[in-house]
Amino acid sequence: MRKNNIPSELNLDHPNQNHQTNKTFNPRNTFVLAGTFLLMIIAAFLAVYYQEQFLAFREERLNSTIGAIFFWIATGLFFFKGGYFLYTLYLYFRYRSVKAVSDEELPTCTVIVPAYNEGKQVYATLLSLAQSEYPEDKLELLAIDDGSQDNTWFWMNEAKKVLGDRVTILQQPKNHGKRHALYRGFKMGKGDIFVTVDSDSVVDSDTLKNLVSPFVVNEKCGAVAGNIRVLNNEKALLPKMLNVSFVLSFEFVRSAESQLNSVLCTPGALAAYRRSAVFACLDEWINQTFMGQPSDIGEDRAMTNMILKQGYYVLFQRNAYAYTNVPEKYKGLYKMFIRWGRSNVRENIAMAKYVFTNFREGSKSGARLLFLNQSFKIVMCYPFLIFMLLFILTHPVLFISSTLLGILIFSSFPMLFYAKRYKFSESFWAYSYSILYTFGLFWITPYAIATASRRGWLTRDLPTA
Asked: How large a percentage of the chain has pLDDT more than 90?
């Protein structure tokens, strides 16, 4: 429902509107998709044409000690990943979102919106939150400008003019980082549940209600991850690809993780935390270091890890949507992935310290399985990178054809998954994204591992003149 003190004519650039209005033909999109399929068709032809060379290459590898060792390790990992996928598929089909509880049952809730160089988008974020169906007397909105260098503070004040006492706006004296802005919100907030929302996101009217409901029905729930979609997916090619990728990452992967009560990361774009769980680890979280340096990235994964460590369940709510802006250019995309990769390395190390202990009552095998899956990706990164480079140098045609054929086969699942959940016409971006990631972003994980101790958010800086 729409609150009376919010202008009804306000356009929040909501994605539901975009999907209904952006139907125009885009030749660039068509060219990219056509090129994607042409590449994979050629790859399939080459795979058949060079079948004898593939068999000879396999025999050559098996006849060398190193090659044979690598082959059997790769085979073992392939069967592990295959079994892991089937188990994930089983968990996905068992997953059900928690239905929203009544207004009377809902706890008090503090929504914290940290912002840095966000501009006008923070205005849309705050107004979308104010239009939530959550009971007004139980909802507290805190917006914190973390020393922005643009007009973010102006737009926070504009939102304040519209919302009045419904929102509290605060300004950090200088940029301290997102973690410190959230910390200020946690310390000030009065709600039994904290919700964090990125300042480049908007939410559906029922999002907060759906996100908070698991805390009411499950006293073991310490944190809840929201369902993230891409807001700017009509503006550029990369957001279109990421939109399909996000659906698989959240609606498939996190649904399965939720069945194991062990979602590994509650995203900064939309997450909820039990107050008592936050304050039990707040000092450790704000003072977290890695290799002697203060941690200024991965605050969402770190908070999730520390709440899991306390023995709480971390769940996913598929029916709690947030729509967030993602990078539209390659440079912004790889910077975002580097930040995520470094955080993943750090938090996997942190998780290794407790996941094989008796950290919670009941089954812990699910959390351990998720940890092992993440760890294998990190441990095997460099061996597979070396193998890939050798393969390219010795058999470039075989490498390209086999890789593209693999993309055609393995990317069909995310394509079909997206087509089933949303729009068939948009699902083919799964193939384009896989090609981009395989050939243009393969270096991210090894680079993130090697530079895991480096600080810096990398994105949100103002463009240089």
From this structure: 75
Other residues' Cβ atoms within 10 Å of the Cβ of residue 192: 16
Instruction: Assess whether pLDDT exceeds 90 at residue 131.
Output: yes
Q: Comparing 7 with 49, which gets the higher pLDDT?
A: 49
381 to each of 35, 64, 135, how far by Cα in Å?
29, 22, 48
User: Could you give the CA distance from residue 321 to residue 225 in angstroms, rounded to a whole number?
Assistant: 10
Q: Are 251 and 227 spatial neighbours (Cβ–Cβ below 8 Å)?
A: yes
Q: Is the pLDDT of residue 110 over 50?
A: yes
Residue 33, both tokens: 């998709």
Structure tokens at 137: 């007397």
Strand partners, 114: 144
Q: Where are the alpha helices (DSSP H) in 224-274?
A: 237-247, 255-259
Phi then psi for residue 7, to 5 deg, are: -55, 125
Q: Token match 């929201």: residue?
A: 226
Phi, psi angle pair for 114, to nearest 5°: -80, 140
Looking at this protein, which amino acid is placed at residue 91? L
Give, in degrees to the nearest 5, the angle at Cα 299 between 296 and 305. 130
- The more confidently predicted of residues 378 and 46 is 378
Provide the b/e sequence for 217-226 (b: ≥16 CB within 10 Å): eeeebbbbbb
Q: From CA 166, how far away is CA 249, in angstroms rounded?
A: 34
CA distances (Å), 454 to each of 290, 294, 334, 352, in order? 9, 10, 15, 21
429-440 and 27-49 helices, crossing angle to 10°:
70
- What's the chain's average pLDDT? 91
CA distance 243 to 236: 11
3-state DSSP call for residue 221? Answer: strand
- H or E segment and range at residue 116: none
What pLDDT does 157 receive? 97
Asked if pLDDT for residue 12 goes beyond 80, the answer is: no
Q: How far apart are CA 139 and CA 122, in angstroms?
A: 18
Q: Is 155 exposed, middle or buried (0-12, 13-18, 19+ CB in 10 A)?
A: buried
How does DSSP assign 117-144, residue by residue? S-TTHHHHHHHHHHT-SS-GGGEEEEEE
**Which of these, 113, 131, 281, 283, lies nearest to 208 by C-alpha position?**
131
Q: In whole angstroms, what is the distance from residue 394 CA to residue 462 CA?
A: 44
